[in-house]
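<discrete_fold_record>
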Amino acid sequence: MPKLGKRTRAAREATDNVKAHSVEEAVKSVKANATAKFDETIEIAMNLGIDTRHADQQVRGVVALPNGTGRNVRVAVFAKDAKAEEATAAGADIVGAEDLMEKIQGGFMDFDRVIATPDMMAVVGRLGKVLGPRGLMPNPKVGTVTPDVTKAVKDAKGGAVQFKAEKAGVIHAGVGKASFDEKAIAENVQAFIDAVAKAKPSGAKGTYIKKIAISSTMGPGVKIDTSAPNA
């Protein structure tokens, strides 16, 4: 195992990794240990009691964090004519149709979110092998295939976070920055937990939310009490 630096070792020693904390206690601990020279991302990991091999145990959705993510999200929109103009006016970074598809096929990937109007999905579908593995494929379930491109772009820019359970039933997401105050981080964490709780699939049996932990980019994880209200 690689040797831990003094700062990381001290942070881990100061953190109780066994006890489950309230959201507020966990945020306070994580924020105190976010001592890197850059603005660390606050990350959440949730272990769910699901088997993603079954269609009725998929967990996927989107949540608008009340205090945003603290990062600049670059948005690409597939749209034509009036809808393309609407997307540009809403603040989209890249807007196009077949020309954008060809650009992406050529290796262009300078964006974090892809939105498409329904009529453009035949074009976007040809990028499935490129966008799919990166989790960037537009999907009506999370509001990224929609005729309302203004709302979709503004949501993406304003702090809408998509989530999807991985094979092992784990969900990861960034829910803010260490520079946020404790209240703002806690509100974002709780909003994310609530959204995942509401997305409980019909096929889930037994304990749905098994474990929750938050951490900063360079800091140790801190467990959140899953029996607390809304968790």
Notes: The chain has eight helices and nine strands. Helices lie at 6-14, 23-32, 81-90, 98-105, 121-124, 128-131, 149-158, 182-198. Residues 2 and 9 are 12 Å apart (CA to CA).
